[in-house]
Design goal:
alpha+beta; Four Helix Bundle (Hemerythrin (Met), subunit A); Alpha-Beta Plaits; 7 strands; 9% strand
Length: 410
Amino acid sequence: MNRLLLDPSIRDAHWIMRITLGVTLIMLVVLFSERFYLDSRIHQTMTDIRLVEQNTARVQRLSANMLMSVKLAASTQDLAWTKKYQSQQQQMIIALAGVLKFATFDETALFETAAVPANAILNQLSEKALRIAGKHNSEAALRVLTSEEYGAEQYRLESATNTLFKSVSTRLEGAHGSYVLFDRLFLLSLLMASLLGIFFLWNAILENIKQALSGYKGSRRANHNEPELDTMTQLRNRDSFQRRAGIMLEDARDSGVQVAMILIDFDQFQKVNDTYGRLVGDSVLCEAASRIGKSIRATDCKGRYGGDEFAIMACSVSEYHNPYIMADRLFRTMSKPFIVDGQELHLTVSIGSALVASGFMDFDELHHRTHLSLQRAKTMGRNTIVHYTEDLAIEALTRDEPQISGRPAA
């Protein structure tokens, strides 16, 4: 699984996933910003509509109250009603201004064309009625206020005012409806963008995983077509062991666990073949393979590396399962006599081991270190165990350096 996750196609899928997520997030941010703007406009238009309705009701109420006030002022000749009438005029101007601020240029021009002259005439007639009432002629003042001219101008003013109110309210309500509609459309767009992002992301991941699995299965089939086991010992052969060991090293790098390799080589095994025959030697190798399998864990990898040499790859090395303990156990089990066809053979082995404590190491380097340990065990007289140290590598380099010697020229 770890090798599958390291596949280039999967890494490409990760990049595609990041790009798709980035684009989707940008789209969502833009759409959310637009929706925030629409929400603010919806709220503002609702507030404007309420203000227009409030000022409209106020204008209508003041219009009726002004007519009553001026009539009472004319009939009673009471200055209090005159002052109230004048106050109501100022309130009327403020209420109309509260509506006009929401009006367009055309709506304002239309209103002023009809309302301003009518309002001016009404003010003139009202002032005339109040002057007549001031001369103690209430009947004449009331005739002015109830005249046909006064009623026509009042109707003209009310019509202009109602037209303005209706036009402004209709336009604001239309804008509010448009904003609500756009808000619904943006919600739908958000949903569609999210679904499309998920669809393309999922499709890209599936496509790349399919390609990776196809290549992985193809390599697995190719590997299965190759012989995996040594026909005699039924352990992994050299190639199979190297592949499995490489996978274990990759897993160890990802998970941070330690890995150890052990090489076991019989000392002077050719003498067994020469003395007892190859069939006896093969039986000894089969018995050795069986002993190795019983001495290690099922998760460890074991193989016949060639001739009379065996290799073990141990994963998840710990205090109670490390190359020192394993090598000692294998050394003791291999030192026991081999019984073949009633003959008791006492054989010795040399063992070399190396540990990958931290960091990444490829199989060739690990095998090289383990082989150096095995060579040192052989040169020390065989029948022993050697664990890799840096001194072995230094000695090997020194030993392999060309020796340059010469003599002085005559």
